[in-house]
């Protein structure tokens, strides 16, 4: 019996020491950046937006942020520093809904406050028609709150240890470039017309147009709850909001779905609401014919090459493509005419050229 007690005590001590070592290792390396900045020299793999963005927002050094969906992942944050003089932290969420933006802005402003000079926010009109509480993926609350007691889910997480500490240390060539975190897998050769059309399937032709007011009501709710409060509460921060340039194939789908008038009205409503605020500037890239009609700029029917991202950063600095209340109708009309009158059949007739 005495020997059994000794054995059990030894086992418990070893187990406690082992767990302590695991927790200590996670705390020391901190691959999700919950407690401190990245260790100098460790080959971090930054590839999980939902788990890593809150830590990046809490502990990285920055004075501006880049928010949005996968339409923002090809931005190189070095461009913001070179062109705009801003140290920008990318906090993208693929397929992001407005609630995703609100969740991360809560953390950003709680930790950085008035030091945030600019918020670069890419808006996808389709996702602003969802429920005000909808997120693209389930939120790991223990990474988003300030409750250290539930951090056991992080400190004793097998995947964190194996995939983000041991694997990263064993194979440092997989480390992420800090200026291009979350970058897409596409290489330059994937951005060409033939590749885009190979995988593109046109939307079915709708019988009737949608009820525009339903979408406007949902957008209004999302703006009221998830976006505008941050604009109002932080008048010292400039909100640089932009509509990303989807390719002409996107507008083919919109027209086939009899949604063109609805989408234009959605842009009109969002723009007018946002431009009510002095600390908002708005950039409209959807009607740039030289971009959206050149499918060699795209890897699929919406995702564009990094060179388009750099052009947008240049616009943020020189005010090209900026929309105001004075020129909004003109810009919307350009988009309407381009989408409504475009010869979509010619794309497929000549798709190998």
Count structural domains: 1
Write the CATH homologous superfamily. Answer: SGNH hydrolase
- Provide the CATH architecture: 3-Layer(aba) Sandwich
Main beta sheet: strand number and arrangement?
6 strands, mixed
Q: Tally the helices.
A: 15
User: What is the helix/strand order?
Assistant: HHEHEHEHHHHHEHHEHHEHH
The tally of strands reads 6
Can you list the strand order of the major beta sheet? Answer: 2-1-3-4-5-6
Strand content: 5-15%
Give the overall average pLDDT.
Answer: 93
**Compute the gyration radius: what is it?**
23 Å
- Taking the alpha carbons of the first and last residues, their distance comes to 84 Å
User: What is the CATH topology classification name?
Assistant: Rossmann fold
CATH class: Alpha Beta
């Amino acid at each position: 019996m005495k020997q059994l007690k000794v054995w059990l005590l030894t086992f418990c001590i070893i187990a406690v020491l082992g767990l302590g070592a695991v927790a200590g290792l996670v705390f020391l390396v901190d691959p999700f950046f919950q407690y401190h900045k990245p260790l100098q020299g460790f080959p971090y793999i930054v590839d999980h937006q939902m788990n890593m963005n809150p830590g990046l927002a809490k502990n990285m050094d920055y004075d501006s942020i880049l928010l949005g969906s996968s339409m923002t992942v090809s931005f190189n944050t070095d461009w913001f520093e070179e062109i705009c003089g801003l140290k920008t932290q990318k906090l993208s969420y693929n397929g992001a809904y407005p609630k995703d933006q609100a969740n991360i802005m809560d953390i950003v402003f709680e930790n950085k406050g008035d030091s945030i000079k600019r918020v670069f926010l890419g808006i996808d009109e389709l996702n602003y028609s969802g429920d005000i509480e909808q997120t693209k993926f389930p939120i790991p609350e223990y990474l988003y709150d300030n409750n250290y007691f539930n951090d056991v889910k992080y400190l004793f997480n097998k995947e964190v240890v194996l995939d983000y500490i041991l694997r990263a240390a064993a194979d440092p060539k997989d480390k992420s470039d800090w200026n291009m975190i979350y970058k897409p897998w596409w290489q330059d050769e994937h951005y060409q017309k033939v590749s885009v059309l190979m995988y593109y399937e046109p939307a079915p032709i709708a019988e009737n147009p949608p009820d525009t007011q339903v979408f406007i009501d949902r957008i209004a709710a999302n703006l009221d709850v998830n976006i505008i409060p941050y604009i109002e509460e932080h008048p010292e921060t400039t909100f640089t909001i932009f509509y990303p340039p989807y390719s002409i194939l996107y507008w083919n789908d919109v027209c086939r779905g009899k949604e063109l008038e609805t989408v234009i009205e959605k842009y009109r409503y969002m723009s007018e609401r946002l431009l009510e605020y002095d600390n908002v500037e708005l950039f409209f890239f959807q009607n740039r014919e030289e971009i959206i009609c050149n499918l060699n700029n795209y890897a699929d029917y919406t995702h564009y090459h990094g060179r388009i991202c750099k052009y947008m950063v240049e616009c943020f600095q020189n005010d090209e493509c900026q929309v105001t209340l004075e020129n909004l109708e003109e810009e919307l009309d350009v988009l309407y005419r381009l989408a409504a009158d475009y010869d979509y059949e010619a794309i497929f007739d000549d798709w190998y050229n």
